[in-house]
Task: structure prediction
Amino acid sequence: MSNVTDILRIDGLKTRFFTDNGQVNAVEDLDVRIEDGEVFGIVGESGSGKSVMALSIIDLIERPGRITDGEIWFRAPDIADELVETDAVDGDYVDLRAMSPEQRGLLRGSRFSMIFQDPMSSFNPSITVGEQIAEAVEAQRRARSNPRSLDAKSQHYGLTDYLLGGVLSSKRYVSEPSLDRAIELLELVGIPDPAERAEEYPHEYSGGMLQRAMIAQALAGEPDVLIADEPTTALDVTIQAQVLDLLAELQTETGMTILLITHNLGVVARMCDRVGVMYAGEIVERGTLGDVFDNPVHPYTQGLLGSIPDLQGVAERLQPIEGNVPSLLDHEMPDRCYFADRCPKAMEECLEHPPELAVNDRGQHATRCYLAETEYTAAKALPTDYFGATEAPAEADTAPEEPTATDGGDHQ
Amino acid sequence: MGLGKFLIKRTIQGVIVIWGVVTITFFLRFLTPGDPVSALTPPDAGPEVRERMAENLGLNDPIHIQYADYITDLLMLDLGTSMRTGRSASIMILARLPATLELALAATIISMIIAIPLGVISARRRHQKSDYAATMFSLLGISTPNFWLGIMLIILVAVVVGPIPTGGRDVSFWEATVMLFLEANPRGFGNWAIHIFLPAITLGTYFTALLTRLTRSGMLEELGKTYVEATRAKGLPETLVLYKHVLRNTLIPIITVLGLQLGTLIGGAVITEEVFSWPGIGSFLIQQIAYRDWVLIQGILIVIGVGFVVINIIVDAMYAKLNPKVVTE
Result:
């Protein structure tokens, strides 16, 4: 708790989904610190738990998923003052997990907001864009007008009000000033003729315009942290650059923190101050952009960087990472390093799950890999067919739950 | 394309459908057994009496002349003269129409009041007791034949509750409203409500069950969409997420079903009207079939057809209002 500039500290976060096929450990023991005002990138393949992590922060994990463990400390002195003397407070920080669902709900929009991958499906198709943005403005306006009351956003506008709103304009949820503000926001994100565009429906927008509108909506509550979950993936390349520029520009203007989730390393290189690489629900390597991109330690990070084409260099064959994203089913997750079966440098140590190890003394660059401390030597290397060979017989003969745990024991 | 243009297009389509209905009902008469002349003249009538009867009814003209006459009369809203009573068919049917409309609307409104909240609760508490109860209820509702339900309600209510009328209709909704506002007498209204209650429940049960299921599955589908997550993420109260966003979008397809169903209720109230002696056009149709009064039968079928088309145009207009894509595409 030394670094006061952190806005968000996540400790040991575990988010699990209890499905019919078994327990899925989507986010496993995740620790991360995000500094105030930075752009923090989370990189990883599909299914590495990036989006679940984001939804965990904003408290939108739905059944059958649940955050089962961990702490999410968020820097908010004003809330800390209100909740003082409870377990949820530590100095200027509040633990989101220890707050009531109503209290957490109040942070959505005002402290955290989120933009999603596909703008077309993230807007309600049957309500005008202006009205939807105005809703976001209105929600924050109403919350601010009564900050003491934690239920300000819900109890004062119930079903009866909504039904009456159909008849009486005074009972409508969205007020005129909010609609005007929505138009201003649309102008801010560079939408031409914002007053007319506000009257249009999502299907009348292009993808890039709609993503701009979604950014406008996310800015409505002047959030401290903007979570951008693959904000450019659904857009074509020229539009991607424009949207990223817009985000960078807005970040400079407002000083908000951006948590940028992407699988696109180019986007990370362009936007981020620091990066965390996610694999199988945990952050396997983190550090400044320079640390991670120029001096990657974890073979997975090296593999990711090796799979980008280099336009300047000699056209070599790209190096894909062998194998597939691992299963996140609890009973299929081994006790070893989750990457060991795909790792070209797997060693005997790797049969034990690695803790996070510092790469250098500066304290920023860390990785969940023994290579941070030991050199790779061919003598300790696991045989190349180690996992391929054990998989079939181990699953057939011994208990299928922990095939590698018993094997690991033999080797030690 | 604006809403006005959209409605004009729908209306033209509706007119074509009505013309089809009229034509089919007109020619249907020549395909069905039973000759109106035999039905109307005494069995011992001589050929000249029968001939004059046929002449009076216009049955001796070639078919295309009869058809043209019929269409011309219809355009002047004249459904002809009842073969049996000699009275205007339009007036006779019009007198019966309010009862049917009241019953269909009452059944629809009761259904909506019960089904939509039930479907919402069911979807929100998926796989919990209240969901199972609602699902069970809708399964029962869908599989209960309404003639049986009507008779059971009559027996049960007559025995258990006592003096609730189990048939007929003393005052119309219009009369009850006039009594309420001009004479400040709510009794007429009570009388109307107590008479319509059982037939409306009977007629509406199937629809309630259907609507509950549609609402439940529609809500579940909508709740899984990304925009719901996005709407929550921006901090909107859950009430608005559920009703303004999710339920509203759920209702878009349901409106269509609602319209089709209301059309069916107008024509399909035949059995319920018969069971409860409800003086609407359904029970009237059964009587006229027994009399082979073709003018009235045709008239009733055309009125039902027109009702169906008009309701569908109204539904399309509502649909266009709720779903902006319909109008712009």
In short: The longest helix of chain B spans residues 187-223. The mean pLDDT of chain B is 85. DSSP finds 15 helices and no strands in chain B. Residues 96-277 of chain B form a domain with the MetI-like fold fold (CATH 1.10.3720.10).
